[in-house]
Design goal:
By secondary structure, the protein is of the alpha+beta class. The protein is built from 16 helices and 14 strands.
C-alpha cells in the first residue's frame, strides 16, 4: 500500500535534484565570459601573476605599474579590441595610459573590492539586487568625458583550455585613448624633471605637493588684485549708487576670481590625482556657487538698502502699497534664490561624488550624520528661516510698512533669514529675531490702509467751557491740509477725576507720519487757544471761567507772590 506512494516521493526528489543540478550548472556557467583566447598577441603571462579575483588583479596592476613593468601589466587588460599583431606593441602603452587614468580620474574603494573568484559580495544587505549572486563583471567607477560618462570595469574571462582570469574589460580598453586625453599628463607635466614625477606620499607626486600651494598662492594674488582694483574704482567714483554696488561686490568678486584662477590654471597646466580631484571638485563647486550667490544677493541688497533709506517713510503711504509689495517680493525672491542655490550646489556636489559608487554612499552617509547634528544644534536658526518664509508668503509685514512693535513705532527696513530690521521714527535700528517677530503681536499701521485716526488728550479744569474750544478746533480742521475727513473729527469729554476733566481730539490722516505731525500741530494750536481764552477770562475778571486746572493756578499764584 505504501510502496507506490514511496516510489512517487523518490521520483519527485530525484526530479528536484536533477533540476537543481541543472540550475547549478547553468549558474556556474554565468560566472565568467567564455572567449577563445585571451591576449594571444602577447607572450605567455608569468606564473606568479595573480588574476584570480578582482582585488588581486588591481593589486597586481598597481604593483607592476610601480615597477613600470608595462609588458606584464598588459596581461591585465582584455586586448581583444587591438589586432593580435599589434597587441605586443600597443598593450604596454595602453597599460601605462590606463594607470594614469586610474591615478587621476577616479578613486578606488579598496575596502569594498571583492577578493573572491566569483566576486560574490557576502557582506551586502539581503535587499541588494545582487546579494548572494556571483558576478562576472564589476564596475569600478564612472569617468566623465566631454559629453558623457564611461564606466571602468573588470571582467572575468575564461579562455579555452585555461583558467578564468579577471582583467580590465574590452569596453574599458576601447575607451582608454579618450579617457587619457582628459586625464593623462599635460604637456607641462611631461616637461617636468623625472624626480618631480615620483610619488611623494599617499597618491601625490612631488610635483603635486609643490603645485598645489603655488596654485593657491597665485589665486590669492589674483583675488587680492581684484579686491584692490574694485576698491580703487570705488574711491574714485562719484556716483553714490555705483559706490554702494562696488562696495558690496568687492569680496564676492575677489572670491570668484580666486576660484576661477585656480580652476583655469589647474585645468590648463596640471591633472591632479584622483583623490585630490575628489576633494578639489566639490570645494570648487561650493566656492563658485557661494561667490555667484553672494554677487546676486549683494546687488539686490544694495538696491533694497538704497531704496529703503531714501523712501522708507514715503513708502508707508497708501498710494505706495504696490511698491511695498514689490520690494517685499524682491526680498522674498532673494531668500528663495539662496535656498535654490544651496540645493543646486548640494546636487552638483552629490553628482561629483558619484553616489552610485560605494565610496560616494559612504561620504554622503557621513555628511548626512554631520548634517543631522548641525541641524539639531541650529534648530533655532532653522525656525527663524521658516518664519522668514512665513512672512514672505503671508505678507504680514512688508518692507516699508509702519508697525508698532513692543511700544516702538518703526518702519520695516529689512527682512532677512534670521531677523527683521526695524527703523524707529528717531533713526534707531531695532533688530528682532524673525521667530519672535512672528510669535508676538504687533500693530501694522499700513497693512491694507495706511490712514490713521489719532487722538490728542488734554487735561482741563472742571470749569472749562468746552463749547468755546469747538469752534477753534473746527477752524483748525478745516484749514489743515493733512486732515483726511473733516466729518470724522471730533472734540469730546471722555473722562474726569477729582482734579481735572479729560478731553479728546480725534483726527484722521492719510498715513502714520502725517497723522503724527497733524496731532502735534493740533496739540500746539489748542494749547495756544486755551492760553488765550485763559488770559481773556483773567482780564475780564472771570477767574471762575478758567481752563487751566485749579492746582496749576494755585501754583502759579504762589510762585508770583
Amino acid at each position: 500500500m505504501f510502496r507506490p506512494a514511496l516510489r512517487l516521493v523518490l521520483l519527485f526528489l530525484l526530479a528536484l535534484s536533477a533540476q537543481g543540478a541543472a540550475v547549478a550548472q547553468e549558474g556556474s556557467g554565468t560566472r565568467f565570459f567564455e572567449v577563445e583566447e585571451l591576449n594571444a598577441g602577447l607572450a605567455p603571462p608569468p606564473e606568479q601573476l595573480n588574476r584570480d579575483t578582482p582585488q588581486a588583479t588591481l593589486e597586481a596592476f598597481y604593483a607592476l605599474a610601480e615597477r613600470e613593468d608595462w609588458q606584464n601589466a598588459a596581461h591585465l587588460l582584455d586586448l581583444s579590441p587591438v589586432p593580435e599583431v599589434q597587441q605586443a606593441r600597443l598593450g604596454p602603452r595602453l597599460a601605462e595610459m590606463l594607470y594614469n587614468i586610474l591615478q587621476r580620474g577616479m578613486v578606488i574603494d579598496w575596502g569594498n573590492l571583492p577578493d573572491r573568484p566569483d566576486a560574490l559580495d557576502a557582506f551586502s544587505s539581503s535587499s541588494a539586487p545582487l546579494s548572494g549572486e556571483p558576478r562576472r563583471s564589476i564596475r569600478l567607477s564612472l569617468i566623465d568625458l566631454d559629453n558623457y560618462a564611461v564606466p571602468v570595469r573588470v571582467a572575468r574571462l575564461k579562455p579555452e583550455n585555461a583558467d578564468p582570469a579577471w582583467v580590465f574589460s574590452q569596453q574599458t580598453v576601447e575607451n582608454i585613448p579618450q579617457m587619457h586625453e582628459i586625464y593623462g599628463p599635460t604637456r607641462f607635466e611631461q616637461m617636468l624633471p623625472g624626480f618631480l614625477q615620483q610619488t611623494a606620499f599617499w597618491t601625490l607626486a612631488w610635483w603635486e605637493v609643490v603645485a598645489l600651494p603655488v596654485l593657491v598662492l597665485l589665486a590669492l594674488l589674483a583675488a587680492a588684485f581684484t579686491y584692490r582694483a574694485i576698491g580703487a574704482v570705488h574711491t574714485r567714483s562719484t556716483i553714490k549708487q555705483a559706490n554702494v554696488i562696488l562696495d558690496t561686490l568687492r569680496f564676492p568678486m575677489a572670491l570668484l576670481i580666486f576660484v576661477a584662477t585656480f580652476v583655469v590654471t589647474r585645468e590648463a597646466a596640471f591633472t591632479f590625482s584622483g583623490p585630490v580631484n575628489a576633494v578639489l571638485g566639490p570645494i570648487q563647486t561650493v566656492l563658485i556657487i557661494i561667490a555667484v550667490a553672494l554677487i546676486a544677493v549683494r546687488i539686490v541688497d544694495g538696491i533694497l538698502d538704497q531704496v529703503a533709506r531714501r523712501n522708507l517713510e514715503s513708502m508707508s503711504e497708501q498710494e505706495n502699497a504696490d511698491e511695498r509689495d514689490l520690494y517685499t517680493n524682491i526680498s522674498a525672491a532673494r531668500r528663495a534664490a539662496i535656498v535654490i542655490a544651496f540645493l543646486f550646489g548640494l546636487g552638483l556636489i552629490i553628482l561629483q561624488l558619484n553616489v552610485d559608487e560605494t565610496l560616494g554612499f559612504s561620504l554622503i552617509a557621513s555628511a548626512s550624520g554631520i548634517g543631522l547634528i548641525l541641524a539639531f544644534a541650529a534648530r533655532k536658526g532653522l525656525a527663524d528661516v521658516m518664519a522668514s518664509l512665513q512672512i514672505a508668503i503671508s505678507k504680514s509685514a512688508r518692507i516699508g510698512d509702519a508697525v508698532l512693535f513692543a511700544g516702538n513705532w518703526c518702519y520695516v527696513e529689512k527682512i532677512k533669514f534670521t531677523y527683521v530690521q526695524l527703523r524707529s521714527w528717531d533713526g534707531r535700528r531695532v533688530i528682532v529675531p524673525v521667530s519672535t517677530f512672528t510669535s508676538e503681536p504687533f500693530e501694522n499701521w499700513s497693512k491694507s490702509d495706511s490712514s490713521m485716526m489719532g487722538l490728542v488728550v488734554l487735561n482741563l479744569d472742571h470749569r472749562a467751557d468746552v463749547d468755546k474750544l469747538r469752534k477753534p478746533f473746527e477752524e483748525f480742521v478745516a484749514e489743515d491740509e493733512d486732515v483726511l475727513d473733516e466729518e470724522s473729527c471730533a472734540i469730546q469729554v471722555v473722562s474726569q477725576d477729582a482734579r481735572t476733566m479729560q478731553i479728546r481730539l480725534m483726527m484722521g490722516a492719510a498715513d502714520p507720519t502725517k497723522a503724527w505731525n497733524l496731532h502735534c500741530r493740533a496739540r500746539e494750536f489748542m494749547l495756544k487757544t486755551i492760553s488765550r481764552l485763559e488770559d481773556e477770562a483773567v482780564a475780564a475778571g472771570k477767574s471762575e471761567a478758567g481752563f487751566l486746572p485749579r492746582e496749576r493756578e494755585m501754583q502759579m499764584s504762589s510762585s508770583a507772590s
